[in-house]
Amino acid sequence: MTGQPVKSLLGELRRVAGLTQEELAERTGLTVRGISNIERGRVPRPRRRSVEALALGLGLRGDQVHRFVRHYCPDAARPAYPAGAVVAVPAQLPAASTSFTGRRRELGRLDALAAQRGHGVVVAVLEGMAGVGKTSLALHWAQLHRADFPDGQLFASLRGYGPGAPAEPSEVLHSFLRALGVPAADVPAELDERSALLRSVLATRSVLLLLDNARSAEQVRPLLPGHPGCLVVVTSRSMLHGLTISNDAHRVTVPLLTDVESRSLFGRLAGADRLGTDGADVADVVSACGGLPLALRIVAERLGQERELSALAAAMRSTGDRLDALTTEEESTSLPAVLSWSYRTLPPDVAGAFRLLGLHPGPHWEPAAAAALLGTGVPEARRLLHALVDHHLLERRADGRYEFHDLVRDYARGLAGAGPPGRWCEPVRRLAEHCLARAVAAAELIAPPDPNRRPLLTPVAADGGADTGPEDAATWLATELPTLLAVAEQSAAASAAGGSYARDLSTVLWQALRVHGHYSALRTLHGLALAEARTAGDAVGRQQALVDLATVCARLGHYDEAVEQLTECLTVAGNPAVTGRAYNTLGVVQAQLGRYEPAARHLRRAVALARKTGDGLNEGRSLSNLGFLHERQGELDAALRCYEQCLTIARTHGDRPSEAIALHNLGDVHRALGDHRGAREHLHRSLRVSRAVGHREAEGYALAYLGLVHLHLGDPETGRRYQEAALAIAVETGIRPLETLTNNGLGDSARATGDRPAALAYYLRACDLARRTREPHEEARALDGIAAIHDDAGDRAKGAPYRRHARSLYQAMGVSAHPGDH
After folding, report:
1. The dihedral of CA 179, 183, 189, 193: what is its sign?
2. Contact 197, 182 (CB under 8 A)
3. Which whole number is the average pLDDT over 676-680?
4. Helical spans, DSSP H, in 17-133
5. 153-157 β-sheet, strand order
6. Widest pairwise Cα distance in the chain
7. pLDDT at 83
8. Cβ contact 142:233 at 8 Å
């Protein structure tokens, strides 16, 4: 070494090491220009720190370092590291959790990244929400693989989120350098110099650095090595986009635990015996924790110390009590405190958005709804939403909507509720009006407005949505339905203070939701509208809600409830058109109950009132129901005339749902008349219309009647397939009369193919459903089927009681036998 000219020593050693000036600069933190000047002799007395960094960057050892430093710094009394000194091998990893559970995918991802460190420094950022187990995952993996890093493992808590100030990178560098054996006197004072020295010390070494709880990329970047062989694992509640962009960091999102993993972790913590003995309570506790490991650990600890599982489960079921159950004396293990650390780091505008979003009553929302709640434009709302996603306080779904974790929502709602009374009235009102406007736009795309529905109590913008057609509108409605119901519930609770959104949403959505078979939601919505109308003293609203609620109850087979609601409705002095609709629905209910005489009286009165009030839609629907009554009584020609009139009125008014119903009713009566070709034509037309408008109920009945047609044509297998499709719709939508009808139809098809056990099972199911909903017509039909099964088996005596019971039901309805030979 000493025989080389001074100016070429660095260049010679660099070439021996196989490094370019750029590569050496990256290892040492020096500039390419500075290295070039030293090589060319333009810097007669380089700084000792720079020379030491170059020595380590070149991979020199012991005496080589000493001679190299003395070569450029002759006055140096001693090297920074005594000759022959061995750099320390730190082992700073904290202990890993013994109850660690799951995370196979994430562990595999870290394995794959670690395998790449021979080609350069690898940085893995484990990012996720507070309490999701990022640190546990990092420590578990690090302890498993510490032998893969023979030159040491460094650990630092960067305190990015916590009760104190975040750690300064300069302090962490000082700690790391000392742990690596650098004497305190030789640790530089400046951040950049400390960072350069760390890169030099780690050059040619294989070290794992675990940087826990980082706040920002700026906090992490000075701590990164510059040489292949090292792996850096960072954990953070932020996404640290800067590290990904400028340092090729790899993001590894740490998700919530699966249900299986959650139960496994809870079992390990609370004792596996609890999983078996208290299954329902365990399921509630685990579900309420929402896959969050910290929450599971807290409730398991509380269970072991002070609370019975049943009491804990009750607290976790209550939205208001969940966070109390997850609060501990120590901040680092108290979920509200841990969440508060994330909240406190937010900029003021983002923190304000977080609080306001806690007021959203639904499970998820689109950016436009957030904009309405926040009182901003959509672009600004997106910016705020993205900021909350970056801090893992909000999640963005695959469909572009946003949602809170349940426990984060509880925290946000708690913050929102901490303000002065009435502070949030205006944001909630903005959101409710937005939801109503969007509902109006969607409903008008699905079904034409009904001129006889009352006008909205809340004026809304003419253009409330961006749906391009009925399918888009139906998709939006199905997705947004939980929020719409929640808005209605809030409004009904505030009806004494002027809330009207439950009544308006009931008015707007009654047909759109019915068309798509959302009967359970309709029942809830109309019930809320009724409660709101009663509190507000709104007679017309009460009348409309009662008839709407009764219509839904009839579809679901709750006929007694429907009769009560309609009886009350007819006592209300309100809109005559609504009174006509009440008589129509009451007539249908009475017909289903086998009370044909009062049914006919109510339906004729409904037709007369509809004509008097000019309610063409109800006139057509009442005629359709009158036709159904005639068909039940075996008066097929009269039924045919009613259905044809209904079809004409529906087409005149553009009432596509009623058109689909009229067509399948015509198909059924043609079948009963023996005109199977005409029946098929009408039923297939009904299918086309019902599917075009998404009318699930009409589609189900068309399929059921097609099954009967094919059965009578001698093709029971095709009939069975149609009936099964109809049954699927009935079960999905909860339409009990359709479910009963299709079970009887499936029994007929099974009997025709000789499958008596299957046929008997279908008839028994139909009989049970009919008795529960009090439909004597379908019950008699099922009893006839059971009797026929016993006849087929050669045991007429066993079938006789069923046949007699069927005859008694027909006689009570005023018909001699099963009309239409179904």
Report:
1. negative
2. yes
3. 93
4. 21-28, 32-39, 48-57, 62-72, 104-114
5. 153-157, 208-214, 231-236, 122-127, 250-253
6. 125
7. 32
8. yes
* Of 208, 181, 186, residue with least CA distance to 84: 181
Phi, psi of 766 (to 5 degrees): -60, -40
- Per-residue model confidence (pLDDT) at position 419: 52
SS3 92: coil
For 727, the token pair is: 């049954």
Q: What is the DSSP letter of 494?
A: T
Going by the DSSP 8-state scheme, the letter that residue 438 receives in this structure is: H
For residue 288, the model assigns a pLDDT of 83
* Residue 91, strand partner residues: 153
Residue 110: CB partners within 8 Å, gap ≥ 6? 124, 141, 233, 252
Beta strands in 262-324 (DSSP E): none
Q: What is the pLDDT of residue 127?
A: 93
Q: What is the DSSP letter of 89?
A: -
- Give me 718's structure tokens: 């095709």
Virtual CA dihedral for 165, 169, 174, 178, nearest 10 degrees? 100
Closest CA to 356 of 429, 272, 300: 429
Measured CA to CA, the distance from residue 473 to residue 465 in angstroms comes to 9
For residues 378 and 367, the answer to whether their CB atoms sit within 8 Å is yes
* Digit-coded pLDDT (tens) for 89-121: 899 999 988 888 888 999 999 999 998 888 888
Q: Convert the pLDDT of each residue in 196-217 to its tens digit.
A: 999 988 887 889 999 999 989 9
Contact 325, 364 (CB under 8 A): no
Q: How would residue 85 be classed by pLDDT, with cut points 50, 70 and 90? A: very low
What are the residues facing 235 on neighbouring strands?
126
CA distances 444 to 502, 545, 630, 714, Å, are 18, 20, 33, 43
Q: What is the pLDDT of residue 464?
A: 54
Retrieve residue 83's tokens. Answer: 């000759």
d(CA 309, CA 808): 54
Q: Who's near 707: CB < 8 A, 6+ residues apart?
A: 718, 719, 720, 721, 722, 723, 726, 742, 745, 746, 749
Choose the weakest-confidence range: 415-424, 489-498, 571-580, 694-703: 415-424
The pLDDT of 662-684, averaged and rounded, is 94
User: How far is Cα 728 from Cα 745, in angstroms, rounded to an integer?
Assistant: 13
Angle at the Cα of 680 from the Cα atoms of 674 and 684, rounded to 5 degrees: 155
Residue type, 756: R
Q: 1 falls in which pLDDT band (50, 70, 90)?
A: very low
Report residue 239 as tokens.
Answer: 């996404």
CA distance 473 to 438: 9
Q: What is the pLDDT of residues 569-597, one digit of tens each?
A: 999 988 899 999 999 999 999 998 889 99
**Residues near 63 by beta carbon (within 8 Å), at least 6 away in sequence:** 83, 84
Query: Phi and psi dihedrals of 153, rounded to 5?
Result: -135, 125
Q: pTM of the full predicted structure?
A: 0.73
CB atoms within 10 A of CB 115: 12
Name every residue whose Cβ is closer than 8 Å to that of residue 446 and which is 6 or more positions away in sequence.
470, 473, 474, 477, 511, 512, 515, 516, 693, 694
- The helix-helix angle for 519-536 and 501-515 (nearest 10°) equals 160
Q: How far is it, in rounded angstroms, from Cα 769 to Cα 767?
A: 6
Copy the structure tokens of residue 800: 């006789």
3-state secondary structure of 396: strand
Question: Cα–Cα distance between 179 and 89 in angstroms, integer?
Answer: 8
When pLDDT is averaged across residues 403-414 and rounded to a whole number, the result is 85
Specify the residue for token string 């139809």: 745
Rounded CA separation 474/482 (Å): 14
Amino acid at position 183, single letter: P
Q: Distance between CA atoms of 110 and 235, rounded to whole angstroms?
A: 13
Residue 52 identity = E
- Which residue has 């933190």 as its token pair? 29
CA separation for the pair 361, 393 (Å, rounded)? 17
Which tokens hold the place of 55? 């020595």
